[in-house]
């Protein structure tokens, strides 16, 4: 089915524009052409930045109630057209229609939280008379928008992760330029459509579609861009840091998420949660469960139940309500996952189930006895593969959980508060879920990681902190 989306235009400084050069957007399930979008040029991005300079002044001058109203109206528009949004997410990406509907619902919530947080951008009074000689001074600080934000977003949550950058940016009075993933640009353009319908002033928001090699460096390096908000891979993140210069940087760079299952855990709950956490969106989820450390006493039971539930996962047509998992985003990505699994097998890993590829589809796969020096044990898989490891106790589990260069989120299943507290204190992650898998998240919480998993925190309130600067005001009073 061919989708018509605003004439396949991009939003440049408030105007919907075409370009002669286009990018094809294809369904990863069968490689059918869905639509085309403009392939923006370097000159397009430079023009967009000049317009955003004016947009930043307009955004900063918007009173809070107007920012709130605009964001709420955008959320209303998405809610009124939620089936359309879910359909686009499912067709251009990897998510099933049920997963896409949940992402759409989360996007609406992300925007509503952004609107509410706009009213809570507050400062504090400062007791200047704490220093001798400052008895006649009073003052405070308040937060101001930083200006223009450049946002680079990934394919795996093509609507909600864009909303996590756009919502806080507008709530805090900034202009923002979004460069969405080349393979999933339609959802970001639909978000822009919602804001165009909401009464957002022109030039505050732009969504520029194009190849990173052509427009990415312009966005990252331009001195007028005061912050880069990036979600993507570690290598790209490191390149951005090298090129960005003196500007704020917020990055979520993925993970290799561990979950610990102790012998006092509710095994049924642990299995159900981690199966979902491992294979949601075909494992293309930065919080995806990748490594599970199971205490020896319950290893056999956990393994049998986990494999049984994995085998019940229904893989197939994304648009069917009966499907649990669709394809990876491209056949190339499926081949990459296949190669990682094959390397582990060659080095001694045992396949408990899965391990087969058909085009862009890769079956949900469970591996055991994976040598810890294998790439699949150390790096982010970003595919539907999970590794099971047996451990003696919580201390060994924590030590092995920490033995990678990532640290986004983790989980532990136990009824023992002392064991849970030990994990809380010693697991090197940005978030730890007790009796839940690593992939649990709400859109209002601080979200980010340690080590190679990123810099700074998202989650609306916390993103707004990153997107504003405190300014101190001090009054010297006459005696």
UniProtKB/TrEMBL annotation:
Cite the entry's keywords alphabetically: Oxidoreductase
Tell me if Nuclease is a UniProt keyword of this record: no
Listed GO molecular functions?
lactaldehyde dehydrogenase (NAD+) activity
What is this enzyme's catalytic activity, as reactions?
(2S)-3-sulfolactaldehyde + NAD(+) + H2O = (2S)-3-sulfolactate + NADH + 2 H(+)
Residue stretches making up the Aldehyde dehydrogenase domain: 16-473
Q: Does the keyword Oxidoreductase apply?
A: yes
**Known EC number(s)?**
1.2.1.97
| InterPro entries reported in the protein's UniProt record | Ald_DH/histidinol_DH, Ald_DH_C, Ald_DH_N, Aldehyde_DH_dom, ALDH-related_metabolic_enz
Per the entry, what this protein does is: Part of the sulfo-TAL (or sulfo-SFT) pathway, a D-sulfoquinovose degradation pathway that produces sulfolactate (SL). Catalyzes the oxidation of 3-sulfolactaldehyde (SLA) to sulfolactate (SL).
Entry similarity comment: Belongs to the aldehyde dehydrogenase family.
Q: What is this protein called?
A: 3-sulfolactaldehyde dehydrogenase
């Amino acid at each position: 089915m061919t989708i018509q989306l605003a004439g396949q235009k991009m939003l440049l400084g408030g105007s919907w524009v075409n370009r002669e050069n286009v990018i094809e957007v294809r369904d990863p399930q069968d490689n059918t052409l869905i639509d085309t979008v403009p392939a923006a040029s370097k000159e397009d991005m430079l023009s967009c930045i000049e317009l955003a300079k004016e947009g930043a002044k307009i955004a900063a001058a918007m009173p809070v109630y107007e920012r709130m109203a605009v964001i709420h109206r955008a959320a209303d528009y998405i809610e009124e057209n939620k089936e359309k949004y879910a359909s686009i997410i499912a067709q251009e990406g990897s998510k099933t229609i049920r997963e896409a509907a949940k992402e759409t619902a989360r996007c609406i919530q992300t925007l509503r939280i952004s609107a509410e947080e706009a009213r809570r951008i507050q400062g504090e009074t400062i007791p200047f008379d704490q220093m001798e000689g400052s008895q006649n001074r009073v003052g405070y600080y308040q937060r101001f928008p930083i200006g223009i934000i450049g946002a680079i977003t990934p394919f795996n949550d093509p609507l909600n992760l864009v909303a996590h950058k756009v919502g806080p940016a507008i709530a805090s009075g900034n202009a923002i330029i979004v460069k969405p993933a080349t393979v999933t640009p339609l959802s970001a353009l639909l978000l822009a459509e919602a804001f165009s319908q909401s009464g957002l002033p022109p030039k505050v928001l732009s969504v520029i579609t194009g190849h990173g090699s052509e427009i990415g460096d312009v966005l990252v390096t331009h001195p007028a861009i005061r912050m880069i908000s990036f979600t993507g891979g570690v290598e790209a993140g490191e390149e951005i840091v090298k090129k960005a210069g003196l500007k704020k940087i917020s990055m979520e760079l993925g993970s290799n998420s561990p979950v610990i299952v102790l012998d006092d855990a509710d095994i049924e709950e642990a299995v159900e949660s981690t199966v979902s956490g491992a294979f949601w969106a075909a494992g293309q989820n930065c919080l995806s469960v990748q490594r599970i450390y199971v205490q020896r006493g319950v290893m056999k039971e956990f393994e049998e139940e986990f494999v049984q539930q994995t085998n019940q996962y229904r893989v197939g047509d994304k648009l069917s309500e009966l499907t649990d998992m669709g394809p990876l985003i491209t056949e190339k990505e499926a081949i990459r996952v296949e190669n990682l699994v094959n390397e582990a097998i060659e080095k001694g890993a045992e396949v408990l189930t899965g391990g087969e590829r058909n085009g862009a589809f890769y079956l949900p796969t469970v591996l055991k006895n994976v040598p810890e020096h294998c790439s699949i044990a150390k790096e982010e898989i970003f595919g539907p593969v999970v590794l099971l490891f047996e451990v003696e106790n919580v201390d060994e589990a924590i030590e092995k959980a920490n033995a990678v260069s990532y640290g986004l989120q983790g989980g532990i299943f136990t009824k023992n508060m002392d064991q849970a507290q030990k994990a809380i204190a010693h697991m090197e992650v940005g978030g730890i879920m007790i009796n839940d898998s690593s992939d649990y998240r709400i859109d209002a919480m601080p979200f980010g990681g340690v080590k190679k998993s990123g810099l700074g925190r998202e989650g609306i309130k916390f993103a707004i902190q990153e997107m504003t600067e405190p300014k101190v005001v001090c009054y010297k009073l006459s005696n």
